[in-house]
Amino acid sequence: MIKPTALIYTDGSCNPQSEIGAWASIIFIDNKKITLTDVAKPTTHQRMELLAVIKSIEYVQQNFAAITSIKIISDSQYVIGLMRRKQKLRTTNFTTKANNELRNTDLVKLFLSHTDVLNIEFEKIKAHQKQTDVINYNIEVDKLCRSLVRKEVD
């Protein structure tokens, strides 16, 4: 039997001067396309990248309980890098070499807790690709969150 899975494209954006950010995700479940977006302030680019993934996972958990496997496609080296650093982050209790608290600890802990209970695969995709004839949902989520930031900043 094939286990139900979700395919998720995520992105985050932020205007550092105004500290206004937005995140977007596109979730595919059984060929159904679901788009999620939100705006936050004050925030950072990294927080928006993390929130896009966290909110998408939570949406799937709350609305599709049978899904236990998720594939997340992101252009965020930061988010994908957290998976490689997962054990080290926990061992150091989310502190830096200078013994300072890691930035975004609240979201990093939440993100990692979700990866503990679900089978989540991450795929790194190149950011800011040119549009071609092939549909690229990474471009779509990028445009969505950047558009939301522009609307809030103007």
Would you identify the regions where 5 or more consecutive residues have pLDDT less than 50? none
Gross geometry? globular
SSE arrangement, N to C: EEEHEHHEH
- How large a portion of the residues is in β-strands, by DSSP E? 25-35%
Number of beta strands: 5
How many helices? The count is: 4
The portion of residues assigned to helices is: 40-55%
Mean pLDDT: 91
Main sheet specs:
5 strands, mixed
Evaluate the radius of gyration.
Answer: 16 Å
Q: In angstroms, what separates the terminal alpha carbons?
A: 51 Å
Largest sheet strand order: 3-2-1-4-5
Look at the helices and sheets and give the structural class. Answer: alpha/beta
Molecular structure report:
- With 154 residues, this protein is α/β, with parallel strands linked by helices.
- 42% of the residues lie in helices and 27% in strands.
- The protein has 4 helices and 5 strands, in the order E-E-E-H-E-H-H-E-H.
- The protein has helices at 45-63, 77-91, 105-117, 137-153, and strands spanning 5-15, 20-29, 32-40, 69-74, 119-124.
- Strands 3-2-1-4-5 form a 5-stranded mixed beta sheet.
- The radius of gyration is 16 Å and the shape is globular.
- The termini are far apart.
- The model has no long low-confidence stretch (mean pLDDT 91).
